[in-house]
Design brief:
heterotrimer; A alpha/beta; B mainly alpha; C alpha/beta; A: alpha/beta; Rossmann fold; 6-stranded parallel sheet; C: alpha/beta; Immunoglobulin-like; 4-stranded antiparallel sheet; 47% helix; 18% strand
Chain lengths: 279, 209, 403
């Protein structure tokens, strides 16, 4: 057997073969429609319990910053969060910090609100989109009415029962920031020093580990990180959502990743050994 | 006073105003904040117009220069641009409108698809670069494998207690190194910002003249 | 030997970096305990255990009402505090709650402005227009419908403040940085200062003869990001180097304002162009990938803020066989850049690259950055000591907000 050629072919395997293996490792488990059972991390449990500690009639400020590209990770989080909040009759004031995510967010809230019989203006209000998250956060700490005189539906905030008496951060019982971009960090940098209540974040998987230091120093009181975090949160809330279904496929893909790394290293070591053996 | 010095003074005044409004809780501070924010939006808008004009000009040149099937790409650019501008300006943009349909059924799925490519690229990058080439590369490799296995449900069944190691990596070395990086980035960012405000750093023309 | 020293430094940095984690947790807990005991809650609840005459207790009003303007705001907010009614504290559920009544100081027309539950000893009136004097009464209610009013509070009006004293540490920091910036620029000529090897390699790559234009991407963030400004500064210096060696540059930009800045920089370099693609990161990534795969590319430099699309960009360059140099301030993207690029500038090195390559600025920028980091280290070490030794005054120096 021509070992050097075999090793070379493994090391130099066409990228399309790898793409196909990954695609199958994700598609097949998804088609099998299996729901995983996950062990929630302490950060996710903290997020869940902070919301559970709130009472009926409390108000949460929900800030969302995501694009369609990160919707698969963040939408399950948002849906599970809304279900937990509306089931406890907590009210929501929502805003978007990304232009493309604005429509997605409003539809998500509308769908879940309809399911729980929640009325716009009394139980939830959508403030709309504004650019530049640091400026938005600093302005909101003072008065939301100056930054959002009316909502995207044309209602003046002073006419809506939920927002008529809002005068700043002190009127909110919690701030929840769900983001795939830099705005979650901006909430920690600019929001933490202006707000005494809990700040909770939901993040895409890539930026989750970077926020661990903020959790350790109590700048944020809970983190949901990535699809895994969304699945943990869905399990805590008690719903079988998209994240619990998708995390099984993600697990299989992770195993395939590890397998590829092992195969790559074995071929690398074999190539080194052959090189040394041949002098 | 020449143009560059006038620009430097304007940058200094606006920079100082931006710093000042941060310290003033009074309504005056909020007014300054809104004033600067509004002008930022206006400037971005006009810069966007300049960018779109340059983009259209570039695509026209590309359309003239390319031959055969390659002309499809600049052609599609103009078709897409025309559709979104016309539907957005002329028609409604609420849910159910043509503009909204184009956004939800073309742009959003395309964006999701493009970002889903990350999974494939990561797999190939992992296969290619996570090799036992040196000590730092070995540590990177081991950390990657531990994190991949430790942060998913099936990992515990394959390697028991792997999640403990994964959590340790996230909560100790990751936190320490991230914090150090952020402190350095923060200090460097402050220094750069002050250099811009004071006028030491600026457009290339400030040094040429 | 050098590699060994590097490893020792890395391990020490990781250990030291994780120590403040534990120090801050302990300090936060200690501060919390001291605040709670300061309110006197322990002494109040101590009385509850010793007395149990719920129904026979007379209904008493709250007292010791304190009313003051909420500090550090734009006005319109008044804060009220009071001592709870003894019937509430000792009465085991007799008090059903409180009502807050307000009147303008010149009149005696009290209106109910809030209803509070039992056990509430504070209220924030967020609807008190500035410069109007108000007075307040707290009404104690019972389940049987009885009530008793407190004495009228002192007259109070809200006003906006012109300065937040908690931000004094920030002002001190800005003054120190400005002072350091001033003195480092005036230092006499010194021997050559150490330049980061990665920055040196970047410069050597750029001055090598190229047959194809060098591709440059100033990140995908907006022009208000400091990393984008640092990237444009670096691009200016690279242009100066390339001008001397007759190389060309093609800049691909996703932000319109960055495009304007890049266009102005490239006026100084012949046969070089800036292309504005799209602020949408997915669209930018794919257009960049198409360019990289359809045109010959030797070197690609990606410097600035990048999010998830960083891997899409660098993988495109890797497939095109380009020599890639990348740098970002986004910590979460560094692993992707490390695994796909030949050279990576991590974090602060990106900000130093431009000044270190400039003939007049590198000394000042490097020295300023060194001094700032030394000050930061000293403050951090003192903070670790302070947290362990209970230096609350030191920890409070760095509190800049409402906490």
């Amino acid at each position: 057997m021509d070992y050097p050629a075999l090793v070379a072919s493994i090391s130099g395997i066409d990228r399309r073969v790898i793409y196909l293996v990954i695609a199958l490792s994700i598609m097949v488990p998804l088609l099998l429609a299996s729901y995983a059972r996950v062990e929630p991390e302490i950060e996710t449990v903290s997020f869940y319990e902070r919301i559970q500690d709130l009472s009926e009639g409390d108000i949460i400020l929900l800030s969302v910053d995501y694009m369609p590209g990160s919707a698969s990770e963040l939408e399950p989080m948002i849906t599970a969060f809304l279900k937990q909040v509306f089931s406890k009759h907590i009210k929501i004031v929502a805003l978007s910090l990304n232009a493309q995510g604005t429509g997605l967010l409003e539809s998500s809230i509308e769908n879940v609100a309809a399911e729980y019989g929640k009325n716009y203006g009394d139980d939830w209000v959508f403030l709309g989109y504004r650019p530049s998250s640091p400026a938005v956060i600093i302005s909101l700490s003072g008065s939301p009415h100056s930054l959002f005189p009316e909502d995207p539906r044309g209602n003046e905030l002073s006419d809506l029962p939920l927002t008529t008496d809002l005068n700043g951060f002190e009127d909110f019982n919690a701030i929840v920031a769900i983001a795939s971009g830099a705005s979650a960090q901006d909430w920690v940098i600019y929001g933490y020093e202006r707000y005494t209540g809990p700040i909770l974040v939901g993040l895409s998987g890539g930026i989750g580990p970077a926020f661990q230091s903020f959790y350790d120093t109590h700048h944020v009181k809970g983190i949901i990180a990535g699809l895994q975090g969304a699945a943990e949160y869905e399990q805590l809330v008690g719903i079988r959502g998209e994240a619990l279904r998708a995390v099984f496929a993600q697990s299989v893909a992770h195993l395939v990743f590890v397998g590829l790394i092992v195969v790559g290293n074995l071929s690398f070591l074999a190539a080194l050994w052959i090189e040394r053996a041949m002098g | 006073m020449n143009r560059d010095n006038r620009l430097r003074i304007m940058v200094l005044i606006l920079g100082l105003l931006a710093i000042l409004q941060f310290f003033i809780p009074h309504n005056t501070g909020r007014w300054i904040n809104r004033f600067l924010l509004d002008w930022l939006v206006i400037l971005e808008f006009f810069a966007l117009i300049a960018g779109i004009v340059a983009l259209v000009r570039g695509q026209l040149i590309s359309l003239r220069k390319t031959q055969g099937n390659a002309r499809i790409y600049p052609g599609l650019f103009f078709v897409g641009l025309a559709i979104m501008i016309v539907t957005g300006l002329v028609g409604p943009i609420a849910e159910g409108s043509l503009f909204d349909t184009c956004f939800r059924w073309f742009l959003q799925p395309l964006q999701s698809t493009l970002f889903s490519l990350l999974a494939f690229y990561m797999a190939y990058a992992a296969f290619r670069s996570f090799r036992l080439k040196s000590a730092p590369a070995t540590i990177l490799l081991l950390s990657a494998v531990i994190m991949l296995m430790g942060r998913m449900p099936l990992g515990e069944r394959v390697i028991p207690n792997i999640s403990l190691f994964a959590n340790w990596i996230v909560r100790v070395p990751n936190v320490g190194s991230t914090r150090g990086l952020w402190i350095g980035i923060g200090l460097a960012g402050i220094a750069t910002a002050m250099r811009v405000i004071i006028g030491i750093e600026g457009p290339a023309s400030w040094r040429r003249r | 030997m050098n590699g060994c020293r590097t490893w020792i430094k890395v391990v020490l940095l990781m250990l030291i970096g994780s120590i403040p984690l534990y120090a801050q947790i302990n300090t936060a807990d200690a501060l919390n305990d001291s605040v709670m005991s300061g309110i006197g809650m322990d002494s109040v609840f101590a009385e509850v255990d010793s007395i149990a005459f719920a129904d026979t207790l007379p209904l008493t009003a709250v007292d010791n009402i304190v009313a003051h303007d909420s500090p550090n705001d734009a006005g319109g907010v008044v804060e009220l505090y009071w001592t709870l009614s003894r019937a509430d504290v000792l009465g085991q559920g007799r008090v059903s709650g409180y009502q807050v009544l307000r009147s303008e100081a010149s009149a005696d027309e009290f209106r109910i402005i809030a209803r509070l539950g039992p056990g509430t000893d504070r209220f924030v009136d967020t609807n008190a227009p500035a410069a109007i004097d108000y007075k307040y009464i707290i009404r104690t209610l019972t389940y049987s419908g009885d009530f008793v009013d407190s004495e009228v509070s002192p007259v109070v009006s809200s006003s906006g403040q012109w300065f937040r004293p908690q931000y004094i540490p920030i002002i001190v920091a800005i003054v120190v940085i400005a002072f350091l910036m001033f003195i480092t620029r005036r230092l006499p000529v010194m021997d050559e200062i150490w330049i980061f090897p990665s920055i040196r390699n970047l410069a050597e790559t750029v001055i090598k003869p190229h047959t194809e234009p060098l591709v440059y991407v100033p990140g995908t963030g907006s022009y208000s990001c400091m990393a984008t400004i640092a990237s444009i500064t670096l691009m200016e210096q690279l242009i100066e180097l390339m001008r001397e060696h007759d190389n060309d540059m093609e800049v691909n930009v996703s932000d319109p304002m960055t495009f304007s800045a890049a266009t102005e920089c490239l006026e100084n370099l012949d046969h070089s162009t800036a292309y504005f693609i799209s602020p949408d990161k997915a669209v930018f990534s794919m257009a960049y990938t198409h360019k990289m795969l359809t045109k010959p590319v030797e070197t690609a430099i990606l410097m600035g803020t990048m999010d998830d699309e960083s891997l899409l960009l660098t993988e495109a360059g890797s497939r095109a066989g380009a020599f890639q140099i990348a740098g970002t301030d986004n910590v979460s993207q560094i692993p992707f850049l490390l695994s796909t690029c030949e050279l990576t500038l991590i974090g602060e090195v990106l900000f130093l690259a431009g000044p270190q390559l400039s003939p007049d600025g590198y000394r000042a920028a490097t020295l300023l950055h060194d001094r700032l980091k030394r000050i930061a280290w000293i403050l951090l070490l003192l903070g670790i000591l302070g947290a362990k030794l209970g230096w609350d005054w030191y920890i409070r120096l760095f509190e800049t907000g409402v906490r």
